[in-house]
Write a structure and sequence with these properties.
Layout: H1 3-6, H2 11-35, H3 42-65
Helix pairs in contact: 2-3
Length: 66
């Protein structure tokens, strides 16, 4: 999702997406560790950027409310 679409979500929804993204990254790492290869290596960077984007928006929302 684009950042402006993520900013429309609540903090709880963002944290849920963050949990999902961290789980996806964990699965990617596990797959790479067990098989030695991944279907789409660029997915690592995409997932890490998504996690960073979610953390940034959650921080923005928490500082704006507090």
């Amino acid at each position: 999702m684009k950042p402006h679409e993520l900013r429309e979500l609540s903090v709880a929804e963002l944290e849920s997406r963050l949990s999902d993204a961290r789980g996806a990254l964990s699965k990617l790492r596990f797959t790479r560790a067990t098989t030695g290869q991944v279907e789409n290596p660029s997915r690592f960077n995409q997932t890490k950027r998504e996690i960073a984007r979610l953390l940034t928006i959650i921080t923005e929302k928490n500082t704006a409310n507090g």
